[in-house]
Amino acid sequence: MTLTIAAFWPPPPHETTVARYREIADAGIDLVITGNYLNDAAILRHALACADETGVGMLVASDPRVEVLMRDLDVGEEQTRALIGKVIDDYQGYRSFRGVSLMDEPSPDRFPHLAVGVSAVRSLGHLAYVNLFPSHVTGSYDSYVGDFVSAVRPSLLSFDRYPFLSSGEDEGYFADLAVIRDHAARAGLPAWMYVQTLAYDGHRTPTAAEIAWQVNTALAYGYTGIQYFTYWTPDPARGEGFQPALIDGGLPTERYDIVRDLNVRWLRPVGDELARLEWISAGHSGPPPAGARPLEDGVVVSGQVVVGRYGEKHLLVCNAGYDAATDVILAGPVTAFDPATGSYRSSAATFTLAPGAARLLRMAS
Description:
This protein is of the alpha/beta class. It contains 9 helices and 21 strands.
């Protein structure tokens, strides 16, 4: 499945320009998920026109008509389909329009209504998007996700859980990553996740290694949607104490450069290569985190790593840590993918991974 690199919370209305959307494209981002006061059809159409000029796709996630319809109303299937059709009619003339976000973090009582909305959007040829809660607010996460899949028949599975807390690391990150991926694999769906780019409400500002670690662990788990939270710093009036994101006060922060380089030099070429391969499994060396699985065999002799297996011969080997390098020894000859050339080159079976870093390897046999 093709890799999607997305960003949530784009420039606000007064900064919605072609130049700003070119800045988004230059960061290697190919999909914008709207918000940040782009909440009426007029400004959303203007944003879509800017996206048209720069080759960036847009998922409309801030049309209040959809939010009210999905979260608050029960008007019956026929009228729900008709109202969604009117919303899509406002946007489908733009090349950049990809689809509609129907609801963020739905409770199970809205699943039947979401099923109608997803079916309606899909029938019109567009992406129907729903982002799920993380596990710490749902009770049994396996049941929550499984019930969503069976009731809603979604187009993809997406969730957010931001691992870098002011007090340390959120130990439930890998468990949620695994549950979403397992259900996506069983249902034959893409799996998308959110990457923390900023500090807010009990979360710290991530380092370059911590941003790369989120991206690379997601790749190891076979995720095909990387969504950055957030692109533009949310308005302080929204609460939650948001600190600078990729763009703050109109100016790029150091994390804009970090994400741009990560996307352009690593994530896009590696993602395109992985898209040719079938994801099989993910495992951890040593005792796995809660909810995760150990490595299935002895390919990795030593090293603290998370390994995603793709096809018969390919391994995405990621440093399991974001604060220290790890020395890796593999049990056999390998070649390594070079993202600069898109080809494989000879590689030693012993190498060092920087904090949060990864390599895509092809085993000789």
